What does this fold into?
Amino acid sequence: MAYAPFVHLHVHTAFSLSEGAIPVKKLVALAQKAGMPAIAVTDTNNLFGALEFSDTAVKSGVQPIMGVQLSIAPPGSAERSGRRPDPDPIVLLAQNPAGLANLLKLSSAAYVDAETGRPPEVAIEALAPHTEGLLCLTGGAKGPIGRLLFEGQKDAARELLARFEAMFPGRLYIEIQRHGMEDEEATEPGLIELAYERDIPLVATNDCYFADEATYPAHDALLCIAEGSTVGNTERRHLTPGHRFRSAEEMRELFADLPEAVDNTLVIARRCAIRARTRGPLLPPFPCGEGHDEISELRRMAKEGLEMRLERHVFTPAMDEEKRKEVAVTYWDRLEFELGVIIKMKFPGYFLIVSDFIQWAKRHGIPVGPGRGSGAGSLVAWALQITDVDPLRFGLLFERFLNPERVSMPDFDIDFCQANRDRVID
It folds into this structure.
């Protein structure tokens, strides 16, 4: 089968929140229809759609390229125009498992390590330790190299490029784009000159935000919503109809004078061979103390909890010992049945963890809901004080919550006081 002679390497899906407008499944369908052998997703500072994208692409016969458009804080803290400069975008593409792991670290660091009041960004110093397995595209006119060239700082651009070369040896590409924007036209000669001067390959990309030209007005309105602006405001962020999903033929024609820049999209696709894979939920081990494991701890806590619940909520002063035993046997039978299912499905730790943070909230005076959804049908949950609803009294079914015939992660619907919810999360 003949494939299209171009691969998109700079694409924003709907997971670039309030910015991208291409759903993942639609993006893969567009690549498939265009005959592209591969496609990258490079959402802004996140990998939210990585798993959905990877699965959808593989099932459609399209090679997924895992990437991120990462915001880099300009080197140093120099002020421009009397204010702290905005971060500059670069594109990072994972070649292998080490690269994907580094993408995860860097996208997390953009949010966790950024200064209060600043947009998500990564300092260039923090980028250096996490470049293994990653290809770097310089971000075009709006990237750090392009921005310096646009400001007339050619020597600074050359110095910064050398810094990126050292971080990405043999894995750096100078990115050029042609959407018809002023900064692109102004910086392209300088980017090409630096590429030839330092023997760094060029790569042609199209920064895709929407599917086709007809979607441009709606996407423009989306950017207005994101910024709290209006369509008529000339000072706000603007894109062009060229920021669409262009075909390989359009890209070949657009870069007819630089065919090697288009060819390099296929080279990069061949250099990337990693996908995100599904895996089961990962639960931390519950600390049970010496001589105990999660199963024995769950049994102990459920037994003690049910004894307390029976005394407080089921037994009445009028019941004699015989009547108590008669009433209790139904509860003990149900408890053993539920414990058997929970243990068989390997969820003792989950129940212990949920019980732990709910009981912590109650001890610290944080109101917690009595139980909502199918989880209220669990007697073990009632015994562990996860819920406050007696499922036997109200005829609630445990099987609606946890069922060996339908293996899925249990999901308690828990309500915490809004004013104190953060304390529980902390």
The radius of gyration is 28 Å.
